[in-house]
Amino acid sequence: MAPLRQHIEEIAPLTDAEFDQVQSFFTLKKVRKHQYLVNEGDEVKYEYLVLSGIYRVFYVDDQGKEYIVQFAKAGWWMSDYEAFFKQGKASMFIECLVAGEVFYATLDAREQLSKELHQMEHFFRVKLTNGYVAQQQRIKLLLSSTPQQRYEAFARLYPDLLQQVPKKLIAEYLGVSRETLSRLYAG
Amino acid sequence: MAPLRQHIEEIAPLTDAEFDQVQSFFTLKKVRKHQYLVNEGDEVKYEYLVLSGIYRVFYVDDQGKEYIVQFAKAGWWMSDYEAFFKQGKASMFIECLVAGEVFYATLDAREQLSKELHQMEHFFRVKLTNGYVAQQQRIKLLLSSTPQQRYEAFARLYPDLLQQVPKKLIAEYLGVSRETLSRLYAG
DNA sequence: ATTATCGTGTGATTTGGATCACACGGTTTT
DNA sequence: AAAACCGTGTGATCCAAATCACACGATAAT
């Protein structure tokens, strides 16, 4: 649980007693490659904090095409957040691409911890603030940029993922076809 | 200031004393049509809570094309949030489309109120949660949908804006050309 | 060892939407 | 009242990226 504490304390310092309380809401889980943490149609009981490994949060349209909403690596949170927050059914899948470990916790954990510990509400607010800004940048990119620019932005932001993730999946994240993406760094 | 109180208390009840404290950070401002609240390059000192009127948050690319990141109407918050949170220069404009009034406050206000009043930190967390989910839906739409589907989703979500805002601007929000949008409901 | 499957590159063809161009009625301006 | 501008529709053309198709080496499966 030490990494959990460190992760939180980068934003919100906690006493030992407080961290014990936090800790009690989180469970550690090992995840194998190709394992799914969430499937479309599931109740989304948990959100996940990645300790290690790589994951993709994606959905599938009626024609079977896949679109990646989020990658996740160490230190990132992930879930089908729409379903998680509204406690509805998943419209997305979460798949493990590289084996690793995650912490998971319920919405109740988030809400109770936020209520009982002002520090934890602060922590979640700061995380959401960062996530909000990151998503807004993504929206701007999707609205106005060429495949070229999207690829460059991705390479700048996530050089590590560029190495570890098949290009096909990067294309699914960028909203570009596999072939077009391939031609970007060839030409 | 009554509408401000009501707006906050939908999420986080406050005592009179607490609200006084909150209130002291907000200022009311009348806004005329075509008035700009933020210009590209500005220091973004404020975020805005809309009381009335309609506003657009947009940016302009190197070719002069405009893209709308957000519309805002009564009860919505707006700013160039990336610049606001990071206290950097604006990359966007905020323009008033229909005259009205806004409250505004600084980042300091948000941070201090969050620190001093657990309730306010809760309020902001809930707002960010909703904003995060809404943005994620937008990302999904931009990634996978046709102009047709985007238009339909917009019409479903914001039937009022569809009436009050020129189609050209709706096209800029959807990431579609004016002409294509026009042909959607003709065909 | 041989056969699938996966990741990737690359050519040929198609196509949806952007762009360009113009029309026309409704406001606002002078 | 004439002139300029705005919002909107619509036809013609163009083009960037999707789609279709195939190749080929590398990894995984039988």
Automatic annotation (TrEMBL), chains A, B:
Coiled-coil segments: none
InterPro entries the record matches: cNMP-bd_dom, cNMP-bd_dom_sf, RmlC-like_jellyroll
Domain Cyclic nucleotide-binding: 29-113
Name of the featured protein: Cyclic nucleotide-binding domain-containing protein
Organism: Pedobacter zeae
